[in-house]
Amino acid sequence: MGEELEQALSLERFSRYLSWAGGDRQKAIDLYALNTRLSEALYVPLQMLEVALRNRVHAVLSDSKGSRWYETPNFLVGRHQEEQVAAVVTELSRLGKEATPGRVVAALTLSFWTTMVGKPYEDLWQTELYQIARHRDGKGLTRKHLSGPLTPIRILRNRIAHHEPILAWDLKKHHFMTLQITEWLSLEAADWCRSLDRFQQVFPSGGITLKLESG
């Protein structure tokens, strides 16, 4: 059973867990299982954050610039975001679907939305995007309140989506910040997310011990 599982995972992928386990193959398999359970548990809060972020940005910019704000000439900063929108429109056309704002917004990646709260959009944040989020007491946030923690959260989300190891990450910190940012974006979304969240039950009470490589 162990050897077959190792072959299914591939030697390169399993070697990371084997190293963390100090060469103990059963422990390595247990660590892989834990990685899988934690990835599953983080899916709900990460999904809710992504959905809340894109919908809040879309709602605020639609109010001021119309629902096709992403097509406004010279509005998006940098060619990459324009290419992301163009790729989505092209794919929808290939599938025979109209590129409605709802479909385009839903298909854009998390990187597109985290870029919207990046430094190049500081002026837009000051005039409009500040409306997307606020503290529970109603006080406003700076752009950096979101952009700082969103970068590692986006990377973690991508690692989970590609079935990569995440056990060496500070998962408790990123889990907390994922829920915190969701709360800033939408109290209702955060409360709903917390009602389904299983991260605390899955994360080991004694923490995660890994044998990390020196140097």
From TrEMBL:
InterPro entries referenced in this protein's UniProt entry, alphabetically: Abi_system_AbiD/AbiF-like
Write down the species.
Acetobacter sacchari
User: Which superkingdom?
Assistant: Bacteria
The lineage is:
Bacteria, Pseudomonadati, Pseudomonadota, Alphaproteobacteria, Acetobacterales
What is the protein name stated in its UniProt record? Abi family protein
Pfam families membership = Abi_2 (PF07751)
